[in-house]
């Protein structure tokens, strides 16, 4: 089975030894995106809504580079440092997946890279 790494110049560089995404077997496996500004590599300021929006825009860039869209996402995982912010995160998330949203898990974690409050990873179906 062919395995292809995907890198988008419109998303932040990986901050560790991993790929932004890997395409394999008709799927695009996207690493978690945190709210880093892709131009500066620095975390965005703002509330959980702004952080969620930036993380999803970063994810959108990776999806596009891999030949996918939000409409082809089949599963996401959202990591948050405070589930009390779930309603605000969910409101922004819903705007990116307005119809037929993917399956999703949301979990609270003690800490995320670069002081982020949210990280979102995805799996999308892609043409082979």
Level-2 CATH architecture: 2-Layer Sandwich
How much of the sequence lies in strands comes to 25-35%
N→C terminal distance = 11 Å
Number of separate structural domains? 1
What is the H/E string? EEEHEHEE
Could you name the CATH homologous superfamily?
Answer: RutC-like
Task: Walk me through the structure.
The protein has helices spanning 48-65, 86-96, and strands at 3-6, 21-24, 27-33, 73-80, 103-108, 118-125. The chain has 128 residues and is of the alpha+beta class. It has a single domain, classed as RutC-like (60s Ribosomal Protein L30, Chain: A, 2-Layer Sandwich). It has a six-stranded mixed beta sheet, with helices on one face. β2 and β3 form a beta hairpin. α1 (48-65) runs parallel beside α2. It starts with a strand and ends with a strand.
How would you sum up this structure in a few lines?
This protein has 128 residues and is α+β, with helices and mostly antiparallel strands.
């Amino acid at each position: 089975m062919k395995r292809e790494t995907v890198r988008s110049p419109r998303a932040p560089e990986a901050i560790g030894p991993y790929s932004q995404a890997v395409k394999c077997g008709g799927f695009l496996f996207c690493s978690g995106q945190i709210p880093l500004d892709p131009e500066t590599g620095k975390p965005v300021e703002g509330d959980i809504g702004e952080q969620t929006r930036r993380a999803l825009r970063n994810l959108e860039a990776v999806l596009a580079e891999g030949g996918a869209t939000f409409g082809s996402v089949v599963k996401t995982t959202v990591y948050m440092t405070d589930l009390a912010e779930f309603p605000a995160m969910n409101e922004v998330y819903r705007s990116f997946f307005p119809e037929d949203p993917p399956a999703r898990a949301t979990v609270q974690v003690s800490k995320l890279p670069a002081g982020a409050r949210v990280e979102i990873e995805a799996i999308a179906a892609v043409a082979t």
